[in-house]
Amino acid sequence: MTHRLGVDVGGTFTDVLLIDEDTGATYREKTPSTPDDQSVGVLRGITSVCADAGVDIGDIRSVLHGTTVATNAILEGKGARVGLVTTQGFRQVLQIARSFVPGGLAGWIIWPKPEPLAALEDTVEVAERVGSEGEVVRALDEDDVRTQLRKLKAHDVEALSISLLNSYANPTHERRVGEIAAEELPGLQVSLSSTVLAELREYERTLTTVANACVQPRVARYVEHLESQLEKAGADGKLYILRSDGGLVSAKAAEENPVSMLMSGPAGGVTGAVRVAEQTGFADFLTFDMGGTSTDVALVQNFAPRVGRETSVGDLTVRATSVDVRTVGAGGGSIAHVPELTQALRVGPQSAGAAPGPAAYGAGGTEPTVTDANVVLGYLPTELAGGELPLDRDASVAAVKSIADGTGLGSVEAAAQGIIDIVNENMLGALRLVSVQQGFDPRDFALIAYGGAGPLHGNALGKLTGAWPVIIPPSPGVLCALGDATTGLRDEAVRTLVRTFGQLSDDSLRQILDELSAEVRASLTEQGVPESEQQVTYGADLRYHGQGFEIPVDIDVAAFDGSGGGLAALRTAFDAEHERLFSFLLDNEHELVTVRATGSGPRPTVAETVLADGEADAVGAAVRRQPIWVDGAQVEATIYERGKLVAGNVVAGPAVITEMDSTTLVLPDHAATVHRSGSLLIRPIDSQEG
Question: Which listed residue, 120, 361, 407, 504, has the most CB atoms within 10 A of its CB?
Answer without folding.
Answer: 361
